[in-house]
Design brief:
Length: 176
Amino acid sequence: VYLDGRFDHSTTALLSDVNFAKMLFEGRHFQRIGWRMILATRFLIGAIQPYGDAMDVPQNVRFFAGGPGSIRGYAIHRLGPLDEDGDPIGGNSLIEGSVELRYPISAALQGVVFVDFGNVFASSFTYPLDELRYAVGTGIRFLTPVGPLRVDYGIVVDRRPDEDFGRLEFSIGQAF
């Protein structure tokens, strides 16, 4: 079990440009199943609350979702609010989760199947569960002394007309 919490605070009283509080909580659980299989789960929830005269927070502080370390199958940062050009602008609320079954193929190869879900929302402390986006997929891990080399293919479950069917991702290390 891995639990992590983070609280960031920015205030104009300490020469910041904006007043806001940002909270992020993450939990991970790894359970051995059978001889060498592992069920890995992850849940992440966060919120940003501007206060005082602040109505918005800088883009580099906002939450983004999608991509190999987030919701596989979606392009990096493509979930959540977009501007008029279709570019991601981030949001003030985030919810993400993953369930991954890791199983041995050989001594140096590991396979995975996964389900990822989540989204980013414009408003603070807003998590409409009917707006969650989902991806399913499979992957291969080549185990090396410095960590696994990872290849995942995620498929978007509730694909919209402007979205790809899925994505092939290459990375180093486990997804979580």
